Amino acid sequence: MSKSPAIVWFRRDLRTADNPALCAALARGGPVIGLFVLAESGPLAPGGAQRWFLHHALKDLSARLSALGVPLVYRRGDAREEILSLAKECGAGAAFWNRRYAAAEIEQDKEAKTALAAAGVDAQSFNGSLIREPWEVKTKTGGAFRVYTPFWNAIRALGPGRAPMPAPEHKAPAAPRRPTLSLGDLRLLPAKPDWTHEFSKHWAPTETGARAALDAFIAKPSKRYGEDRNRPDLPGTSRLSPHLAVGLISPVEIWRRVATAIDAGEVPDTEGWKFLSEIAWREFAYHLLYYNPSMATQPLRPEFQAFPWRDDPAALAAWKKGMTGVPIVDAGMRELWRTGWMHNRVRMITASFLVKNLLIDWREGERWFWDTLVDADPGNNAASWQWVAGSGADAAPYFRIFNPVTQGEKFDPDGDYVRRYVPELAGLPPETIHQPWTASEQALRRAKVALGRTYPHAIADLGETRKRALAAYDEMRGNSQS
């Protein structure tokens, strides 16, 4: 047993269950102090929507740690400086954290480990965020994967390497009191106006809330996951992504629970493994991020450096506000603003509309999603945007351009999703709700829709902009080959 305190540096692992860093600190035997440092700027800073989620997750974490005799210290600024400062203040003998995989995060962790070692503090890191570390999943030649399907086959064969760790039960010895900001001092919640006022109707950002979401998914949506996951009008997904993004639950726990439910016959085999393949997509995104550190800012396919993107601030603003005049696109963008989340099928539709119908750089969309998603994630966000843009590894071919009308008609057949988030179109029948410009004047009057007044005209002709996108792709190919 060591009497010197140990620090647990919390980042995207805001939980007590299945937290290797916390378990290692408690097993050491001495006092334990938790630390959370808020990055206020730069690539590590959380977006506005996720700040709301973080506030409530940290409040829950603080209470759980307190029950274990572990105070949670809040700081702001440079994390390397703050963990070194706290270690000196309390005479820490060790520091523990769970690893991260974005380039800036890796560099920060390396610098922190070096500085702590120089100060005589034993710093150790663990895998608490992935099923398998990026370097554990290798191609047959020992390299990194660029294509998802063989990655999925490899990680399914490997499976989770460890069982989930239960939440600790024994209390740590009393820790020395250290100066700390209050949770309120972090100013994670928005000032007036409170644009997050509806978030609490949709999310319970606690460990209990994360586990309840998993239980609810296994109990019902998992039974028809393969079909219903594409329907934004139905509750067919797990809605676990925000909890995963800040670490209220681990992917190892999710994998084990679902795999056990499959074995027990609670979840159909095909549906359960389809869901686990989506968990593996998150792993693939981190695999790509680790081996391609500039993935959030540079196309993985270098020829896309020559793509002729358009600068169109008015169109970008209309897209952000959900005022494009294309109903399913607008429904998705308004769902995002109101709830901090968007159905995955609609994410693909809205992203395709931005980068292909509007020819606006995918990085504009990536930045907007980073700021407005409660589940903003450095791997998933960048990998998914590059997938839609055609510039990523194993990306959708550029000529695969989602038609938002046919997508809406297929996956929101009765128009219920559009009616929920674009209520000004609620009176239109399913036949025209996804393309109101085809409705007769009489039908529009009956539905109290006045295009250009109560609802905007479409800002893009879907057919013409598809042709323009394909021409831009041909131009890029010509430029990259010249």
Describe the structure in your own words.
- β1 (6-10), α1 and β2 form a beta-alpha-beta unit.
- The chain has 482 residues and is mainly alpha-helical.
- The radius of gyration is 24 Å and the shape is globular.
- The model has no long low-confidence stretch (mean pLDDT 95).
- It has a 5-stranded parallel sheet, sandwiched between helices.
- The protein starts with 5 loop residues before the first strand and ends with a helix.
- The protein has 20 helices and 5 strands.
Please identify the structural class as seen in this structure: mainly alpha
Number of helices: 20
For the terminal residues, how far apart are their CA atoms? 67 Å
Low-confidence stretches: none
Relative strand content: 5-15%
The radius of gyration computed from the alpha-carbon positions, rounded to a whole number of angstroms, is 24 Å
Task: Give the SSE string.
Answer: EHEHEHEHEHHHHHHHHHHHHHHHH
Give the overall shape, derived from the CA principal axes: globular
Q: For the report, how would you describe the main beta sheet?
A: 5 strands, parallel
